[in-house]
């Protein structure tokens, strides 16, 4: 009774939650009879054993700190396109650097960045490219370079085993074999990923191919094709980006939104169809994006490529690390005054200033891709079961914390297997866990036995899994090696909510 009373007391004082989370009243799946000796059973753990100083409001999982509205006083910064080197076959040089950035006017804060002081440039690949990237660590601490969503061999994936010490560099070589998509890159050192991303280590990757270039989609970078990296932060009283003060073991969430590192951004567009490439680059916050006018938009791509056809939507939700490409037709929106992208709470994320200038009058193709889920795959048995469970620093996968010396699964290169991802509720109801697999793009077969929504029927490398939900995915690895799979709430990842698969 003690732990029930204490849980009720915690909820009653309004402790805030981690990620736009949905409480599950259905507590099925709590049978621990199959738990092996030595594995963790946190659902039966007495609440008095928890360190309440660490909780900081992530016990209820029902409410999240609200975001401040963007005032729209600063034009959105657009990341630079990284120039190619061509020095001795090197295509790109990417440096992890530290510096100071004036996020607030007149005040500098210590930040990290790639080839700069904060965030990073966009790397552009063509399908079929043979790429060499020189990676250099100019930080005072170890880091890695993880190519999130890129199908590459494990030795260049940049997981926690591929650490570069301060001053070290490494040349990576791979061939780009996947279709047009919007990917990203960030660090992945175990125990430090959350802090390094929070400080600014994140950048985007564009892959193009002959098919994508022939679709006639908006592709004028920085004019009708915009990358949007959404990250929420908390600044201290001196307007400093202070991770140690903001850190929450259950996912660090802030009240101030930066888009492409821009505080209080606005985006100026012409009256035309505009392509927005959305990345949830936050440590833990989920975003539901919609237009405050109520107008719809078209989703044309998921994490790893185009959907078969554009899907009209009035809102879209992305959990940490998920991406989506959408088309907004600013020529057809009647009320453009005070037009903005908002979230589920109505917070103004990105105001739009629509000019009187007409842009290109283009038609979005009705067919974008020939993505399919083969009948034989639909009927494959489940061969991998992944159980996500816990909160704060007591998070596990299949009852275990990450061990770099342990291989959790094996799979044959080129074989398609069905994984079942289950988000097991805890006694507080549970929270959404975004689940990511390195080195592969996968297909969603079902959610709780039902077909995925139309806008999820494309290539994915990260998925949102609600409490008590089971998601089946078809996974194939093109390359050999050891890859990570984990929750992409970065503090959960750092706290051991991660496993390893060896592809042979």
TrEMBL record:
Keywords: Metal-binding, Oxidoreductase. CDD domains: CuRO_1_CueO_FtsP, CuRO_2_CueO_FtsP, CuRO_3_CueO_FtsP. It comes from the Bacteria. Signal peptide: none annotated. One of its GO terms (molecular function) is oxidoreductase activity. Residues 97-210, 237-332, 383-503 form the Plastocyanin-like domain. PROSITE patterns: MULTICOPPER_OXIDASE2, PROKAR_LIPOPROTEIN. InterPro entries: Cu-oxidase-like_N (IPR011707), Cu-oxidase_2nd (IPR001117), Cu-oxidase_C (IPR011706), Cu-oxidase_fam (IPR045087), Cu_oxidase_Cu_BS (IPR002355), Cupredoxin (IPR008972). Belongs to the multicopper oxidase family. This is FtsP/CotA-like multicopper oxidase with cupredoxin domain.
């Amino acid at each position: 009774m003690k732990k029930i009373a204490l849980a009720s007391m915690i909820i009653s004082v309004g402790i805030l939650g981690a990620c736009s989370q949905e409480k599950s009243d259905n507590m099925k799946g709590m049978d621990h009879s199959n738990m092996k000796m030595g594995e963790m059973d946190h659902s039966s753990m007495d609440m008095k054993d928890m360190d309440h100083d660490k909780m900081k409001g992530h016990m209820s999982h029902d409410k999240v700190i609200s975001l401040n509205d963007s005032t729209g006083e600063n034009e959105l910064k657009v990341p630079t396109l990284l120039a190619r080197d061509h020095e001795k076959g090197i295509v790109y040089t990417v440096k992890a650097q530290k510096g100071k950035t004036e996020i607030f006017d007149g005040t500098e804060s210590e930040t990290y960045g790639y080839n700069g002081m904060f965030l990073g440039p966009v790397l552009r690949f063509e399908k079929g490219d043979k790429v060499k990237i020189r990676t250099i660590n100019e930080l005072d601490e170890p880091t890695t370079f993880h190519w999130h969503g890129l199908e590459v061999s494990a030795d260049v994936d940049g997981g926690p085993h591929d650490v570069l010490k301060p001053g070290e560099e490494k040349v990576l070589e791979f061939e780009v074999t996947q279709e047009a998509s919007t990917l990203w890159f960030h660090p992945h050192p175990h125990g430090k990923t959350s802090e390094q991303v929070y400080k600014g280590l994140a950048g985007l990757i564009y892959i193009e191919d002959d098919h994508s270039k022939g679709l006639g989609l908006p592709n004028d970078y920085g004019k009708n094709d915009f990358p949007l990296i959404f990250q929420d932060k908390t600044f201290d009283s001196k307007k400093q980006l202070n991770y140690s003060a903001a850190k929450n073991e259950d996912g660090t969430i802030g009240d101030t939104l930066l888009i492409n590192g821009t505080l209080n951004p606005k985006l100026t567009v012409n009256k035309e169809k505009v392509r927005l490439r959305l990345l949830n680059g936050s440590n833990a916050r989920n975003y539901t994006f919609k237009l405050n006018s109520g107008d719809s938009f078209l989703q044309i791509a998921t994490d790893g490529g185009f959907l078969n056809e554009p899907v009209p939507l009035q809102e879209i939700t992305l959990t940490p690390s998920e991406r989506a490409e959408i088309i907004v037709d600013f020529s057809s929106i009647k009320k453009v005054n005070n037009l903005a992208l908002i979230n589920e709470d109505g917070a103004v994320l990105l105001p739009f200033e629509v000019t009187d200038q007409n842009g290109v009058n283009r038609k979005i193709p009705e067919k974008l891709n020939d993505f399919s889920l083969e009948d034989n795959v639909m009927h494959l048995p489940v061969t991998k079961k992944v159980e996500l469970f816990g909160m704060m620093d007591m998070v596990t996968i299949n009852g275990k914390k990450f061990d770099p010396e342990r291989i959790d699964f094996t799979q044959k290169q080129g074989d398609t297997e069905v994984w079942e991802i289950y988000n097991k509720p805890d006694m507080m109801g549970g929270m959404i866990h975004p689940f990511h697999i390195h080195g592969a793009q996968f297909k969603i077969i079902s959610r709780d036995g039902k077909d995925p929504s139309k806008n999820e029927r494309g290539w994915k490398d990260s998925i949102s899994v609600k409490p008590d939900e089971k998601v089946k995915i078809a996974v194939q690895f093109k390359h050999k090696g050891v890859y990570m799979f984990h929750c992409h709430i970065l503090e959960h990842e750092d706290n051991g909510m991660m496993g390893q698969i060896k592809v042979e």
